[in-house]
Amino acid sequence: MRIELRGVAKRFGKVEALRGVDVEIPLGRRVALVGPNGSGKSTLIRGLLGLIRCEGSIQLDGRRPYEDRIEIARKLAYVPQVAPALGASVAEVVELVGVTRDLQPGRVAEVSARLELDLAAIAARPFRNLSGGMKQKLLLAIAFAVRPSLLVMDEPTASLDYRARERFFELCEELEPSVTVIFCSHRGDEFVRLSEVVIALEDGRVAYNGPVDSYTAAAVEAVAS
Known about the structure:
Strand 6 (150-154), helix 7 (162-173) and strand 7 (180-184) form a beta-alpha-beta unit. The chain has a domain at 82-147. It is globular and about 50 Å long. It has helices at 41-48, 69-73, 90-101, 107-114, 119-122, 132-145, 162-173, 188-194, 212-224; strands at 3-12, 15-25, 30-34, 55-60, 76-79, 150-154, 180-184, 197-202, 205-211. The strands form two sheets. A six-stranded mixed sheet has the order 5-6-7-3-8-9. The protein has a three-stranded antiparallel sheet with strand order 2-1-4, covered by helices on one side. It is an alpha/beta fold.
């Protein structure tokens, strides 16, 4: 999915969360979205997902996510940093995703197994009662299972153990080349392993937009000095 942002701005009362963001992300690009707390990352993600209306222009394959969110939602997958407190059982969540995204039976279970999560064993449990790691694995399994055109992930490995992180990296490497990936992470090793480009936000503006190796080299130099 191709992403074009032109003069994107968002204000919450007196707070300017985004200030004239201009970015182009080509089809299939792997992007690390970084920045300190309050830099605008979450607001930008919400704008991309069509959850909030922003000033300026946001286009995903030529469509506007806020106005065309029903159509765009069929092509997206989102893994939030904080899992929703769903009272539905795991089986009900998976069934709903299967119906709305026309998944083959067993597809989510197949990906869950890759992350060492036994879906059958937890099927009757309310989603909100799962451990943090289980919630993360299930949300990731759903995201990969639906084969999105745009995959957005916020701190996707925060609750994963080492083995699950390695399986996660394998799943990312197996994504189709046309899938655009945007992920937020504070782990430098994940930038290098998963991304081609880093977009760094600071005070709602783009402070850096370029190759991951140049960004990491500048960060190392800044620490050394």
